[in-house]
Amino acid sequence: MRIVSGQYGGRPLKTLAGKTTRPTSDKVRGAMFNMIGPYFDGGRVLDLYAGSGGLAIEAVSRGMSQAILVEKDRQAQAVIAENIAMTQEAGKFTLLKMEDRHALQQVSGQFELVFLDPPYAKEAIVDVIKNLDQRDLLSSDVMVVCETDKSVDLPEEIGSLGIWKQKTYGISKVTVYIH
């Protein structure tokens, strides 16, 4: 795996062996960013189930100014730390080593981009988006990008957000919510 485009484009990304994380393939990540960007002019990104950190690092590579990555798995945290080090701009990244619900209680400020790829998709996505919305953590021009199995059907609206775009790539479905 590698960074697809932007400032860190072409640099390799380490991934975790085994089944504890499901890294987004280069192809799907590239398509996802073409869907939502593909480039950004600053802003904050939250990756709540970071895995290897590829999505948040790709977002910063493409112009986001700050990223908060949340991961509870210790092995995945080590991989994220290595991938952040590869950027040589560690100051742009914050790794929170905890479960999603604890991280949601600690984060503050607003995010322009949120990635959600939880292990138990539908229930977690609905609850997390409602929580982010209620806590005023989503900017007025936020994009919440949800990656699920293609069989998962997410609701048209969650809180004050509605589906803007939705595409299926192989076994993955990407759903983007906006205000």
CATH-defined superfamily: Vaccinia Virus protein VP39
| Overall CATH class | Alpha Beta
By DSSP, the count of extended strands is 8
Helix content: 25-40%
Assign an overall shape. globular
Which fold name corresponds to the CATH topology?
Answer: Rossmann fold
- Largest sheet composition: 8 strands, mixed
Number of helices, where a helix is a run of at least 4 consecutive DSSP H or I residues: 5
* Helix and strand run: HEHEHEHEHEEEE
* Rounded average pLDDT: 93
Structure at a glance:
The protein is an alpha/beta fold and 179 residues long.
Task: Provide keyphrases for this structure.
single chain, 179 residues, alpha/beta, Rossmann fold, eight-stranded mixed sheet, 5 helices, 8 strands, 30% helix, globular
Write the layout of secondary structure elements.
Blueprint: H1 26-36, E1 44-47, H2 54-61, E2 66-70, H3 74-87, E3 93-96, H4 100-106, E4 111-116, H5 121-134, E5 138-149, E6 157-158, E7 161-169, E8 172-178
Parallel strand pairs: 1-2, 1-4, 2-3, 4-5
Antiparallel strand pairs: 5-8, 6-7, 7-8
Region (Disordered): 1-22
EC number: 2.1.1.171
Keywords: Methyltransferase, Transferase
3D architecture notes:
- Pfam families: Cons_hypoth95 (PF03602).
- One of its GO terms (molecular function) is 16S rRNA (guanine(966)-N(2))-methyltransferase activity.
- There is one protein chain.
- The chain has 179 residues and is of the alpha/beta class.
- It has one domain: Vaccinia Virus protein VP39 (Rossmann fold, 3-Layer(aba) Sandwich), CATH 3.40.50.
- 30% of the residues lie in helices and 27% in strands.
- It contains five helices and eight strands.
- An eight-stranded mixed β-sheet has the order 3-2-1-4-5-8-7-6.
- Helix 2 links the parallel strand 1 and strand 2.
- The chain is globular and about 40 Å long.
